[in-house]
# Entry
Amino acid sequence: MQNLLAEMRRYGVRNKDLSQVLSLTDRTITNKLSGETEFTVSEALAVRDAFFPGLRISYLFAETDNPE
# Structure
C-alpha cells in the first residue's frame, strides 16, 4: 500500500477524495489504507481510474515497493 500512499501524496489526493469516489466512510478508507481491510478489485479500479489513470493496479496496490 506504500505506493498508493506515495502517489496520493504526490498528486494531493486525500482520504476524503477516495471516500467520495468509493462512497465509503472516512473510517473505512483509513482501514483500507492501513491494511486492516482490503480494497476490492472494483474499488482498486475506481481509485486508479479516478486519480491515477496512467499507473498500473499492480504497482499502486503492491504490498511492497517492488511488485515484480
The helical segments are 2-11, 15-22, 26-34, 41-51, 57-60. The mean pLDDT is 93.
